[in-house]
Amino acid sequence: MLRRLNSAATLRELRDGGEGTLSELAARVGLSRPTTEGVLGELMERALVAEDAPRPGAGLGRPARRYRFRARAGHALGVDIDARRARVVVADLTGAVVGGHVAGLAEQAPPRERIAAVRAAVKAGLRDASVERRSLWAVAAGTPGVVAPDGTVTSCTVIPGWTGVRLARELGRSFPCPVLVENDANLAALAERWRGAARDADDVVCVHAALHTGMGALLGGRLHRGRWGAAGEIGMLPELGLRDTTAALVPDADPGPLFEQAERVLADAARGVPAARDAVQRLAARMARGIAAMALVLDPEMVVLGGPLIRTGDALVAELRRRVAPLCPSPVRIEASELGDESVGLGAVRLALDRIDEDLFRLDRPADTASSAADEHEAAQ
């Protein structure tokens, strides 16, 4: 057990704190040089640590060897699935994005066709990143709707036929590693805390404004899913004004693509077109009730506005700030997403990395499970 504790501490220090010599790492982790040397040897055998050539000109005598975390020893893959497209994000073990792909989807496509298109998008994303499938250590996918703990979509009004789809199981057939599925607003919340507007905030509500408006919540820095994965789905109550968000912005929409028309209204509002500004004000008045209700229940440090209908600094963000404030007795800090359309995909990567960390730093890890699982999957192909 002590050896595994030392190994986990050294590996985490290399990943989070950067490379170092044997002496530097021993001091940073608080271990003796012989112990650190033994740990580094084991980590190199597991292909998690590499030894780099000494830096020249470092003084008299032989330069000290340097060790670094092998960020590309494995990879995490995030997938954002919605009615119109699939976004794939491939990242190394530090979370650095190394490639990806975006593919359009037919809005009325049946589940089997949609899943096949997602698989094709994943293949294209891996090709773009020059990453082999066997290098994936965890995959996470985001989807609209309520997602049960086993990765089944138990309720979805956005994607036709999506309710009841066992998404984790369906996608899992394509990968040699764990596959997780989570609600898209929940993943957006993870992403905003990781790399967006809510960096390091512990209590956060993320509003994901799309066809409908969903919400994800972090409490004490942890994602709050609820017993059945439905936490934050207060938009199910029509009285709170969060259903049919896009349609409410363009009630007299043409038969063409709804999102494109909504984006034109938002652009016109930003330019000061009176009719468009009126439409944004009506939508903000409608959405403010639901956002205030969530803020009153959770009293968060911050509310982050994201999703396809939100643009940094646009009129809708300003109008929501103005209308939510008088509904809440405490100050409500409202910020626009810093990640835009990438929030759900990045949140999926973060969830996959968290799953990888569970295996990478677990103290009872019996063997190199990631590589053995990949070998078994490859043999089964």
UniProtKB/TrEMBL annotation:
It comes from the Bacteria. It holds the Pfam family ROK. CDD domains: ASKHA_ATPase_ROK (cd23763). InterPro entries: ATPase_NBD (IPR043129), ROK (IPR000600), Tscrpt_reg_IclR_N (IPR005471), WH-like_DNA-bd_sf (IPR036388), WH_DNA-bd_sf (IPR036390). Signal peptide: none annotated. Gene3D superfamilies: 3.30.420.40, Winged helix-like DNA-binding domain superfamily/Winged helix DNA-binding domain. One of its GO terms (biological process) is regulation of DNA-templated transcription. Residues 14-52 form the HTH iclR-type domain. GO terms for molecular function: DNA binding. Belongs to the ROK (NagC/XylR) family. This is ROK family protein. It comes from Actinomadura decatromicini. The lineage of its organism: Bacteria, Bacillati, Actinomycetota, Actinomycetes, Streptosporangiales.
